Amino acid sequence: MRALAVVNCRQLVTLAGPARPRVREELKQLAIVRDGALLIRDGSIEQTGARADLERKIGPEYDMVDAGGRVVMPGFVDAHTHPVFAGNRVDEYEQRAGGATYEQIAAAGGGIRSTVRKTRAASEDELFDSAQRRSEWFLRTGTTMIEAKSGYGLSLESELKMLRTIRRLNEAGPLQYVPTFLGAHEVPDEYRGRTDEYAQIVMNEMLPKVAQEKLAEYCDVFCEPEIFDASAATRILSAARRWGLGIRIHADQLSRSGGGEVAAAVGATTADHLEHIDEAGIQALHSAGVQPVALPGSVYALGLKQFAPARSMIDTGLAIVLATDFNPGSSPTPSIPFVLSLAGTHMHMTPAEAVTATTINAAYSVGRGARLGSLEPGKQADFVIHDCEDYREIAYFTGIEPAFETYIRGERVYSRQ
Question: Do residues 382 and 145 lie in contact, with contact meaning Cβ atoms separated by under 8 Å?
């Protein structure tokens, strides 16, 4: 049995607490052990506590890891990403810098449809190789698991190609992936003006194949009036539920689309974006137990001003999650530390609230809260040694990668040295 002892932790941020997502004041309770230590056996956490208490339990079978007086925290769980795609959209970034809006670029054939054309033309091997290279970006910023969406195929063949790529990435490791089918991400070029016809293909051709091949755990829909309105989103997500998939939804991002109410009505696990949700929508999410996933990186990258109303969500009692929305167009960042900074400066979340939203709450939002997201006995030993003395520095100092070493199942998968 392989055993590991992590000692000399200036702050051991355990997030030990109730076995459920955290709300209200619980978001600030990180259960920090000062001068802490962490014992690991066979990839699972054996014990946490003060270094003085645990050192006498460290026998010769333990390999020692000296954290060097740094902060040790659970690995971040990024609960909303689009990591598999071909090409990039740097030309659109330049257009937005010149004053073009996201909607104008999309109407001209850019945006998601631009990436769809490139992704359709790429082989599965090409998609795998490019995504595997990007996986290190997540590890370098302290992320150990991501929710990974398809959605740049928008045809049966290409959506399956993307989901099979995600499965290969998960098998190859070390980054862990939770697969989500997003065939209703946009209406492809060949179905412009025929949204209902394309929605039928998603429901009657794509969903059955995805479910039969067990390629996804969740189904997602981009709910906007000009893409898939509330009625279409409800039909697609209800069909996904019948096929045994969990439900997520892009809701109220660009307008007050009613996506929050759709999420509540269909029993979604999460409603994501929510920049334009109002109090009625927030109450609907709360009544249905839906976790909101706020994505401030996309607001920043698109040069917009309206962020998800995090304080209203927290005050209402929602178990808020933060994620990157990593994608090639509207949020090209894999950095949770950057998201923590945005959450503080633009959403008025404290560093503790933001950390909870990207660890234990995020883990529950992807169905992994029982084994990930906190450093507690019996849980998987996914943790990060951050090169700082206070966990708040991770959000405070921006533009750097604070992760010094990243571990998954007790194995080091990234080191800055």
Answer: yes
5 has which bridge partners? 39, 64
Tell me phi and psi for residue 383, to 5 degrees.
-150, 165
Yes or no: say if 15 and 360 are a contact pair by the CB < 8 Å rule: yes
Q: Domain check: are 146 and 207 in the same one?
A: yes
Longest dimension (CA), the chain: 70
Q: How far apart are CA 208 and CA 205, in angstroms?
A: 6
Domain endpoint, select from 324, 349, 365: 365
Q: What are 167-197's pLDDT values in tens digits? A: 999 999 999 999 999 999 999 999 999 999 9
81 bridge partner residues: 148, 326
Query: Based on the domain organization, do 198 and 327 belong to the same domain?
Result: yes
Domain coverage including residue 18: 3-75+373-415
Q: What is the pTM of this model?
A: 0.96
Each residue's pLDDT tens digit, 384-416: 999 999 999 999 999 999 999 999 999 999 999
Expressed in angstroms, the distance from the first to the final Cα of the chain is 27
Tokens read off for 298: 């996309």
* Sole residue written with tokens 């906007």: 224
- Two tokens, residue 87: 């090409």
Domain count for the chain: 2
